[in-house]
Amino acid sequence: MANLSRLPTPVVEHWEWQYDGVCRSVDPEVFFPPDSERGPVRQRRELQAKQYCAHCPVLARCREHALLVQEPYGVWGGLTPRERDRILHEPRTVPTQRLTTAAAH
Known about the structure:
105 residues, mainly alpha, 46% helix
């Protein structure tokens, strides 16, 4: 379940971008899978959802929101839950300059 403490305050300016989403005119099942969906069927549905996202005027805002609140379900901002999880939990690389400077001391 998403951590609601990370959600923006209930001020319309924080949420109104959602009114411009392409997804509003598409069946939500395209973006949110049934529990039993697996394999190629899931991949095809996710690809279809991403195709809608690719033409969405609020793609960046949607992706930012999904990453900020760590949205656990559905395709948001053109990213699947697995892709968002990978972004959020991938190890951050240390810039080479820091390593070089640290080694010199």
